[in-house]
Known about the structure:
It comes from Rhodopseudomonas palustris (strain TIE-1). The protein is α/β, with parallel strands linked by helices. It has two domains: about 80 residues, 3-Layer(aba) Sandwich (Rossmann fold); about 130 residues, NAD(P)-binding Rossmann-like Domain (Rossmann fold, 3-Layer(aba) Sandwich).
Amino acid sequence: MTARIIDGKTISAEVRARVAAEVTRLKTDHGITPGLAVVLVGNDPASEVYVRSKHKQTQEAGMASFEHRLPADVPQAELMALIAKLNADPAVHGILVQLPLPKGLDSNAVIDAIDPAKDVDGLNPTNAGRLASGLFALTPCTPLGSIIMAKTVHASLEGMNALVIGRSNLVGKPLVQLLLNENATVTIAHSRTRDLPALCRQADLVFAAVGKAEMVKGDWIKPGATVIDVGINRTPGKDGGKDKLLGDVAFAEAKEVAGAITPVPGGVGLMTVACLLVNTVRAACAIHGLPKPAV
Ligand SMILES: Nc1nc(=O)c2c([nH]1)NC[C@@H]1CN(c3ccc(C(=O)N[C@@H](CCC(=O)O)C(=O)O)cc3)C=[N+]21
């Protein structure tokens, strides 16, 4: 049997529709237009693509979108001054600095400087700590999207064996916290883990977030398991053709074993942007002292 495909296109469109409805409510009932500021330093072509799609989707959801572009050789102080300006701007409810930053810039200092109330990436240590403590927090978009996708297959993740492969601050660690909030039993694997294939075969839920193309093989998957592929690995096309996007999972093999699986492209990546809109609405509500929205 081949796996059910968890379709990021459909699910992210549903999330965006809910965000748009919430934005309409905020405008009519409270006169608030949620605003997202995206800061892009340098001109990495992949980042350009993401930033463009963020801008488009923010506007389509009825929110205000502010783009700030700085040259790759911008001094750290100038970037910090922009963050301070955005922190103080009442029209801005969410601030995202596209990562990674060009060499020579200190991204930790930048992330630290973002007002935690506007940190829609959920990377500020205040938000990471609040999430780990079970307090209200803005949570990183990719883990949030990954959980939403898993929950389209399993209404409850309670008691399930979840394996998170990867321990980054952006994905692995916050994903672990969100899974614990869902009452899953969580194992974290990383580059030093012994016998990853055997560990993987015990997992009902596999989240692959390592950044290595097609590392997770089909025979690592427990039959019927749900596989969420967080990897986006850009690989040059054959014979000078277009670049290909590959996930961290060997999709063709894994889909013959898994019960449900996300594709790349068309999976978690689309959810990341949709969840950024969710976080911007959540931030706007919290900043204005309104209850947590239904998105
Ligand atoms: N501060 C920060 N926050 C981020 O959330 C962040 C970041 N920096 N830097 C880069 C990564 C990457 N990322 C993606 C967003 C959308 C897709 C996406 O839409 N992917 C589509 C198509 C992608 C394509 O065709 O190139 C898909 O998977 O189907 C992927 C990846 C957000 N990131």
